[in-house]
Structure prediction request, 534 residues.
Amino acid sequence: MNSINRRSALIAGLGIAGAGALAACSGYSGSGGADALTGPSGSAVAATEKKRGRTGRERKLTLTAAPARIDLGGGVMPRTWAFDGRVPGKEVRLSVGDTLVAELSNQLPGRTATSIHWHGIALRNDMDGVPPATQTAVRAGSTFTYRFTADAPGTYFFHPHVGVQLDRGLYAPLIIEDPKEALAYDDEWVVLLDDWADGVTGTPDQVFAELRHGMGGMDMGGMDMGGMDMGGMDMGGMDMGGDSSSAGASPGGMSMKFMLMGAESGLLGGDAGDVKYPHHLINGRVATAPDVHTGKPGKKVRLRIINAGGDTAYRVALGDHKLTITHTDGFPVRHQEVDALLVGMGERYDVLVTLGDGVFPLVALAEGKNANGLALVRTGAGSTPKPTVRPRELDGVIMTASQLRAADDVRLTTARTDITHRIELTGGMAEYDWALNGTPFDMKNPQAHPILVEEGRRVRLDFVNDTDMWHPMHLHGHTYQLGASGPRKDTAIVLPKQKLSVFFDADNPGQWMLHCHNAYHSEAGMMANVGYRA
Prediction:
């Protein structure tokens, strides 16, 4: 039985206890009982929730997770799992201070349990949607209602936090509008990026099962593959991922249907990804049948760019246009004009663009994977670009988060660091043993080996990437600042063999996941619990 099946069985079993049972606990014991952790519904969580500013308005909706056959365009109509039969799910939009009341109805097959994680939102801990740490999973045929106040404006999205369900179609944008918005623009366009295999070449569970086998089982003519950077190797005629829909085989006979090898990116410091995808989507459409934004020349548009992918970073550019970056992960930055930007899984960027006259390609280049997603901006006459179009802006001035600076009004105040945690990113493709500090996350005991923090303290995390691959590191329930004056983010790329220091204020009690937002790395164990002392 592979680890996904074990995890699904565990979560389904926990679900039998009832959706509120785990969340009702007031505390847990971590580190072998040495430290009591604040429970997801503890008094400290309730006290923090009361401090959030409220408008008194409620936004109510029902989200039904169920099997669906969806139309991605170009004759691509896979079966997948989706919210209310569409991919992406319907956009949810509310204002700062509004309360979201969202009922999740789980109509997934068999005994498939699920949840919803509200990615990037600093919400109350028992609504974070992370079984079994903050709630028991929602069993098939059952419902669970998420209720929380959204007190920070920005571009967010939501997705499950069970197994590798994120890499199906269970995601949708969540936009928190600011009634005091300072930006001036004429229109908005939400641009949601995704890498897609489900129902085409296989399921995410099958992808993970193959990856979990690891490179250790490959016969490479006596070569020791353990710990070797696979990016620059000549693999002797093996399928290197140029055609994502094709399956190959290793010299040792191991299936290579999903595993990607030979994908390199200078921006990502080497190895670009693990998984071959037959399609890369923008707003649920393949490149041969792109989504189209219709506008007028001279109008200023705010693009809200979200990477909901499982294993792919995207280099994004709009042909014949400059992009002005205004926000990342919901927080404003000092404006920067660029040709293109790099967006890792879980990251979001807001940009402003003044539209030209004609038809222009918005390209999401799958970094290092020789493929791309495509959408179009149409403001006048012009021919439709080819699906493989490569605007020159993709090779122009490319912005990454490390080059940005936080806007003055959201930069953390100067304060002494109270505690520093060294977070080593460990593992590799050889055994597919991704972990934090060498210890894979234990789903049976999510309170084991916590990263301990105390409310009211300034915390520093030193991400030290000991691996040969990049990792987008996501912290739930908080935003951190990159260095002394970098942008405020909840997801940041840590390059191979590099160190990234981030700072945050421990102002949202509970137990919060810290993990790589590569869906397969996280499921393999690259995750930990950032727990507040009770």
About this structure: The CA atoms of residues 133 and 245 lie 37 Å apart. Residues 182-404 form a domain with the Immunoglobulin-like fold (CATH 2.60.40.420).
